[in-house]
Write a structure and sequence with these properties.
With 130 residues, the chain is α+β, with helices and mostly antiparallel strands. The chain contains two helices and eight strands, in the order E-H-E-E-E-E-H-E-E-E.
Length: 130
C-alpha cells in the first residue's frame, strides 16, 4: 500500500481488499468492468478506482499470504488503533480470527476476522509515521 494513500481514521472503512490466487485475472476483470487501474507492488496491486473516488483498495495475491487466509475474498477493511488488541476484542465479543495480527515489511499491521454472524472483515493499522 502506498504510504501517500494511508489516512489515520480509527473505526472507519478506509480500504477494501480483494484476495485471489490469480491477480492477473482479477486485474483484467475489474479493469475492463469498472475502468480501474493498478500499481503493482510485489504480490500486491494498489487499485485506483478513478480520480474522484475516495476509497482506495488493493488486490492481494493469496498465494503469498499467511496460513488461514481464504484463497478468495472481497472485504471492507476497518482502520483500528491496535490490531492485536482489536483481535482480542473480536474474540471477547464472540467473533473469531481467520488471520492473526500480521506485520508487513513497511510496518502496516493487518488481520482478518469473522463476526459472530459469519461476516468477514479486515482490520488494519497504518505503518508508523516518520
Amino acid at each position: 500500500m502506498s504510504e501517500t494513500t494511508l489516512t489515520r481514521i480509527h473505526g472507519a472503512v478506509t480500504w477494501f481488499e480483494i484476495g485471489t490466487p490469480d491477480p492477473d485475472v482479477a486485474r483484467r476483470f475489474y479493469g475492463e468492468l469498472f475502468g480501474w487501474s493498478f500499481e503493482l507492488q510485489g504480490p500486491y496491486s494498489i487499485v485506483s478506482t478513478g480520480q474522484d473516488h475516495q476509497l482506495p483498495g488493493g488486490i492481494q495475491d493469496t498465494r503469498t499470504t499467511p496460513d488461514g487466509t481464504p484463497s478468495t475474498y472481497a472485504v471492507p477493511c476497518v482502520q483500528v488503533a491496535d490490531v492485536a488488541d482489536t483481535c482480542r476484542r473480536v474474540e471477547e465479543l464472540g467473533g473469531r480470527i481467520l488471520v492473526p495480527a500480521t506485520s508487513t515489511p513497511i510496518g502496516l499491521v493487518y488481520a482478518h476476522v469473522v463476526d459472530p454472524s459469519g461476516g468477514h472483515v479486515g482490520i488494519w493499522t497504518p505503518p508508523p509515521e516518520g
